[in-house]
């Protein structure tokens, strides 16, 4: 019976280690793409990204103000996602929130901005944005 427990525990350790490595690779890849997309938005090159091309394809179905709000929504959601991932990585290495240079109030302000943008964009627009903000 003891050998079975050892095998079971060994299997769990191996699965956890494998899963943890995959999560880190995914986070690194995701963070890298998020940073590239956000940089492109800030540089005015959003249309060169996959997200930008996607929004160009659907822009004629929405009012220009709504498309602008969609781009703003993508930008703010990317900023928040990058901040959250950075915060998580910093916490794992022993740093605290202040090490990011952002205050919790700034984070809350961005959350409020997202809420306002979501309201202006509407359910249909948010459905269109869903592939970009998962």
Mean pLDDT: 77
Q: Which H/E pattern describes the elements?
A: HHHH
Distance between the termini: 45 Å
Could you give the count of β-strands?
0
Structural class: mainly alpha
- Summarize the main sheet: none
Low-confidence stretches: 23-28
Strand content: under 5%
Helix content bin? over 70%
Give the overall form.
extended
In DSSP terms (H or I, runs of 4 or more residues), the helix count works out at 4
> What does the radius of gyration come to?
20 Å
What does this protein structure show overall?
By secondary structure, the chain is mainly alpha-helical. It is built from four helices and no strands. It has helices at residues 2-43, 50-58, 64-92, 104-129. Helix 1 packs across helix 3. It is extended and about 65 Å long. Mean pLDDT is 77; it is low at 23-28.
